[in-house]
Amino acid sequence: MSTRPSKDLETFDNPNPERDYTIRIRVPEFTCLCPKTGQPDFATLHIEYVPDRLCVELKSLKLYVWSFRDEGAFHEAVTNRILEDLVTACAPRFMRIRAEFNVRGGIYTTVVAEHRASGWTPPPPVSLP
After folding, report:
1. Is 52 a known active-site residue?
2. Which of the following is catalytic: 32, 41, 55, 90?
3. Residue 41 is among the residues annotated as catalytic for this protein
4. 30, exposed or middle or buried, with CB in 10 Å at 0-12, 13-18, 19+?
C-alpha cells in the first residue's frame, strides 16, 4: 500500500471500447491550499467520462488527488489542470470535471471544465415513458 501522493495516473484497457458508456467518479475528499492565504480548501470532485481505449485506474487517481493537498492553487486552475492531466492519461471521448468547493468567506465556488475528442458526438438521449 502506497503512503505517498503521486502525479502518475495509471490506466487500463477499456473492456468495451466499441460502446459509448459513462464512468462517474465522486471524490469527496479533495484538498488543496489557497494560494493567497495558505489555508486549506476542500472540494468534492465529480468526474464523468466516456472512455475510448483506456480507463483511469482508481488507486492511481486517489494518489493523484492526494498530491494536491500541499499545493497552492486557484479553484479554476486546479480544476482545469486535473482535466488536462486525466485527458492526457486516458484520451477519453468525453470528460467533464465538476469541482464543488466548500464555503470560504461566505462564498461557494463550483468550476466545470469539459473535453470532447475531435469528431466525437454524443448519442442522442433516450426518453423512456
Report:
1. no
2. 41
3. yes
4. buried
